[in-house]
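Aim 2 progress update. The chain analyzed this quarter is reproduced below.
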Amino acid sequence: MNLFGMMDVSASALGAERIRAEVVAANLANAESTRTTQGGPYQRKQVIFESRAQRFPLMLAGARTGEASAGGVQVSQVVSDPAPPVLRYEPSHPDADARGYVAYPNINPVMEMTDLLGVVRSYQLNIAAVNASKQMIQQSIDILR
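Predicted structure tokens:
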């Protein structure tokens, strides 16, 4: 893999983690949402990552060939958590059922904040990888002068 390919891998990870951060933020924002347009409480969302294969062209003896290599990561889908809602007894709530229970999303703010910290750490590591690649490219240019 060339140095620009390394930057592409880190860039794909940064994009995927951005989507993950948006999903975590939506989960936190809707932690108390008891009514959605689909009916019922908000359902926690989760991001599913998958590897992205990419081909980097190489020039060998005048013929174009390709070398298969890892191309980074991408979001394959955002899925709803199948966990059942949390029922709380609040008979005066407008969304209470006949028994007085309100269905709240099964969202644990501590778990969401832990996921958000994972996003931040991943950003930091990928930015460090991009900076290291930039430094290696600059050093290569300096050597060629």
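Residues 3-144 form one domain. Strands lie at 45-60, 63-80, 86-89, 101-104. These observations will guide the mutagenesis experiments scheduled for the next reporting period.
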